[in-house]
Amino acid sequence: MKKIAVLGCGTVGSGVVEVFYKNRQSIQRKAGCPLDIKYIYLRRPRPELPWQDKLCYDFDTILHDPEISIVVEVMGGLHPAGEWIAACLKNNKSVVTANKELIAAQGAQLLALARQHQVNLLFEASVGGGIPIIRPLHQCLGANELDDIQGILNGTTNFILTKMSREGMCFSQALQMAQQLGYAEADPTADVQGLDACRKICILASLAFGRQLYPQLVHCQGITELTPEDVEYARNWGGVIKLIARAHRDPDTQQLSALVAPMFVPHDSQLSTVDDVFNGILVDGDATGQVLFYGKGAGKLPTASAVISDVIDCTKASGTIDTLFWQADSVEACNRQLLDWQQIPARFYLRLRLSDPQQLAYISLLLDEYKLLSRPDQPKTEIALVTSTMTRRCLQEILAQLQAEGIVPLNTLFVLQ
After folding, report:
1. pTM for this one?
2. Which CATH architecture has domain 345-415?
3. Can 100 be counted among the known catalytic residues?
4. Which of 93, 100, 163, 200 is catalytic?
5. Is 238 exposed, middle or buried (0-12, 13-18, 19+ CB in 10 A)?
6. What are the tens digits of pLDDT across the range 123-173?
7. Closest Cα partner for 206 from 193, 219, 195, 217?
8. CATH superfamily of 2-132+302-316
9. Which class does domain 135-295+331-341 fall in?
């Protein structure tokens, strides 16, 4: 029998234990051997939990127990999770984690440590919750050169944007509803500022492109400045606004680019139909073309499902799964390979306030090609448009000239293309 220890028993941790014991018979059949959870690590007693005989308050007990072959880390954060995972790998224990912050920051180093000690570090649940994406990237799509990944990777922001689009809510109203329904944390900063999506796209890009992409190098723009007016203009244009995380590799130069930002998404994109708390990830393979992965991207039971699927893989694997690996570049080396986000070619949505309607003529002098947008009750002093393709740096120069003429930029967004 293989024994498991679970580090943490919050929302995801309790879900892991519940799903394990509910479906234990079928899980053992798929794993090919008997399994049991020996320890559930907690920082302090919780008498309301039903598994009192398994509770443990000392990590060293788990670390030095030779019966424990798999450790499930669902505490989150960098510390002490990073140090504890490393210690488990060095003690020849495989680790399963849902910790996107840690894998995005230290994935290459921890995977190398797992390989060195002939054990596994698996993290299917770190991206997409219950959506299978990590395993398909390194196994099912292994014959492909993958050069583009774009997706809606955060259910909280997608719910907020769906409410703004469908029901005309402002950002604060939609956020309050998300919090009341349990879709948003009391402190939603990591979600609404795009940090959560940034960590996830870095994990996917690192795996797909074979090199560590660090979150601190990726430009990240949240959704807090979006207004119902922006949503109306997107509808008039023929699309919706979504928080998009995208990573791209130029097939000729191998240069990487990455970005997280709210974008105008056209209705002919599959991502435009991904609504509410669902996630959608488009992966572009040279042999398969675009493949869409879709489902609930978070939640207690979907995430627990992904964790336990990794536990099953750990029990079946002999040694390290070698395809789950990427190069541990330094931050400086990674930055040299990364295209400045302001140099990424794109079209842009602009919403501007004029001091005089005649200033539209001046805008036409600076923008050789653009599409004007409209919305109900649009003030005469407000215009919105979508530009032709240019870089953000070029756009900044144009905006500076507009401001010098008294034209005020109210919002600027990328257009997905």
Report:
1. 0.96
2. 2-Layer Sandwich (3.30)
3. no
4. 200
5. middle
6. 999 999 889 999 999 889 989 999 999 999 999 999 999 999 999 999 999
7. 217
8. NAD(P)-binding Rossmann-like Domain (3.40.50.720)
9. alpha beta
